[in-house]
Amino acid sequence: MMKILLGLLLTLLLASCEGEKAKEFRIAVFISGEGRMGKVKGFMDGLKDLGVEKVSYHYFKGNNTLSLMRELAQELALNQEDYDLIVTGGSLEAYMVKSASGKLKTPVVILGGTSIRQWGLTKDLGRPSEGITGVDNLNAELMEKRVELFSRMFPHIRKVLVFCNPQFEASKNATRITIRAGRKFGIKVVPVNVRDVKELEYIISHMREDGFEAIIITPCFYTENFLTSYILHYANFYQIPVFCHSPGLVKKGCHVAYGTSGYEQGYQAAHIAYKILRGTPVEFVPFERAYYPRLAVNEKALAELGVDYNREFFTYIDEVVK
Amino acid sequence: MRLSLKFRVVLLLILLTFIPVILYFYHYSVMREKIIEDRLRFDKLYASSIVSRIELFLERVMSQTESLVYLYRNLGFSEEEIIWRITGQVKGVFEGAFYSPEGILMGWASREKIQPKFEKFVNFNGKEGILGIEYTEYKEPFLRFMISDVEDGLLKGYFVFSLDLSLFWQSVVSTRPNPSAEVFLADSKGNILAFSDMRFSSRKKVELKEGVYRSSITGVEVVGVHSSSEDGKWVVVVEEPVSTVLEPLQGFQKKAMVAGSAFVLSGGLFAILVFLRIFKPLESLKNYIVSWEEKNINKPIRAGDEVSELSQAFENLIRRLEEERKLYSALFENTLDGIVVFNAQRRVIDVNRTVLEEFKVSREELIGRSMKDLIGEELPLTSMFFSEKKVKLREEIYCQLRQELLRIEGNLYILWRLRDVSQEKELKVLLEQTAKLSLAGEIACSIAHQINNPLASIMGYAESIILSTEDEKVSKKAEVIMRQAQKCAETVRKLLDIGKPFEGKPEYVKPENVTIEVVNMLSPKAKRKGVKIEFSSNLNGEKIFTFPWQIEQVLANIIDNAIDASPENGSVEIKLERANGNIVWKVKDSGPGIPKEELERVFKPFYTTKDYGTGLGLPLARRLMRNMGGDVRIYSEPGKGTTVEIYINRREDENTDS
Fold this sequence. Notes:
A: Rossmann fold, Rossmann fold, 6-stranded parallel beta sheet, 11 helices, B: Beta-Lactamase, 5-stranded antiparallel beta sheet, 16 helices
């Protein structure tokens, strides 16, 4: 008995003398699909740069399927107390978690979302009211600017298509802004909702027949994650110029893009997450604006496109991918 | 009030537990104060250094912008293109406009809006550099500054740029005291102009205070300081969460808590252990001993606490045990029987004093010896009794042996009670012999009585013949008859003397006379064997005070042995002399002598070389002489006969010829 007691005492004393181990944070990552991984990468790097090394990430990937995303949101809402933080790839995922949970018990950080208030994720961007905060990438607000830049680059194009999902108010909002901006610059913007890849190919292959000569991508989870790769594939094949919302897409073959990169948004979101992990209440961690947007062009893709564009517009370009 | 030891120990443990707890809180409080004080001083220095750099950084931004304007103007860029390029290159500048020298808005470019908010007409007269602070539709403050567009000394217009203060502020506070520190730029009234990140600020205002307070910006308790520029236009506010500042202390606190808890826990466990392992059995032991003592010793115990009571009880007990040990030890040592104790392996582990004295052996000689060594066999483990058993302690001795078994505390002990019965055996044989002699004496007396009367008649008639006859021959023959009859009568008288009971009284006797009587008694035997007895003495009629019958017995035994030992026609030489104050008889035979190894054995009872011997002669002789203060010694060499010396002490008062 005495030996056991001494052993216990020694162990406790040694344990107390041992260097304090940093707490391991458990973070749930809820993303609609692989398209959001750029933001996640930026987020992880950001946390590392802030010295938060011990983090275990638990992924909830929706494979761009709404039904699966809803199931994952339910599961996450049920088990939210297992995590110190939930990060979502965009506003849609945050909205789904909030809807599944009701009142959130674990803070949610959006890695890069748009139309935050339209989604009902907070009443005031300066004082989060729903336990959700994050980075507002202002993608919807920048649609006007994108249309303006598009009209300057392709002054001869007068009819463009935008793909949207009318199920979501935010997608409709971005589309509305795009249509309104198009009117200002004499461009007819027509929204199209596609159900699958076949429909997408059919539309892209026949759009010229109806006078539509370009596609403008709106910030919407399913274009961002799912359609963009197909759009770019068919657009290049049918020589249709595409204007994207993230400079990151230019590297994937998009002809021109204006906005902030998902990586930067994720990196910026890491600073927000850091404050919450250090104990600051969510209502005191306001949403942040994404850093200033940049205009990027894929010169090679443009050259292969064989479409006329305003070469003088190149003085506006911030980044050129060759 | 008398406190029990148990209660005092508990009290002490509680006190020992509370002392580190109190010290812990005291040190925590002192260290907390010191750390916060240091942090306030450090943050104050940081805020002062930052505030002094604001104007410098603003000038740098404007200077960079002006250079780029000059560059792009020379490259032939339009005003819109120049503004666009600058918004992409100068951090924080997100929009701009160009005004004609008259102040009319000519063009603009923005990173966010297709039509940013710029006044259509601005009067630039007298204005230079910073124009002022304005707010976006999100209520974000930004700073407007102007650059004059002059080419070859000719004013071509004015560029007005909007600078996002938060982005600008990130450049200024690129290094913060720690990642958790918030560094705000505020105006003189506390309106926040910039954060160190891109948060939506909603025109927040801070109270300019210093110390520890709850921040209206972060909502947590912070260590806050502020520092104002010289003109009071800019205020830098630094706030750090108290939890971050005290993190090292809290780390230490946790360790101390763990260590302290470990200590207290161990102390508690130890205390429980002490109670369970010490106090409880101690109390039971004390109660048991005290009640036992009260019953058996009748000595009341009056002491302070349990340990004192127990101590006193033990003292009483040990004293009592010591007394009893002494008693039992005395009983063991002084018992009439010799006691030998064996262990279960039948090895001697203890003997009492009787054994040592009775058998003339030392403890060291016996301890460790096996049972087989002592009696030549190992007795079975059972109680046994032997009326006679030859036991070899130093010499082989006939003993009465009683074996008993003892089991003490699970150990087996074998106990022997030994009693030397060799003397008893001697006496028994002697008694038998004496009985025989007594019978022979009685017969002899009876014969003597019956012979005496005829002898008296013979002598009477022989005397009558002598007196009445005149015949000389007859008279001579009658005289011969008379002498022989007198001789017979003398022999009968002696026989009657022998038959008389021994009275055991000492008396003065002459050793020569005693010797002569014995020699006369044994002469017939010597004659039969043809052994010549020679007696010589150098004493001058001295007397000794002794038991003559015993001396006769001893001499008879020794001389008889000498006759037996001598060959036919041999001789026995008897010398009586004085030596060193003793009277010594030296009886030397002409026999074959005794081997050296057998010399000692001759005094052992029942050792004999004769066919009809008892083996008691010499041992009896020695014992009789030793009882009288003398001794019997024997000297012999094979082939040279044997000499037996009989000593008797002659006291001074005996030196009288009375």
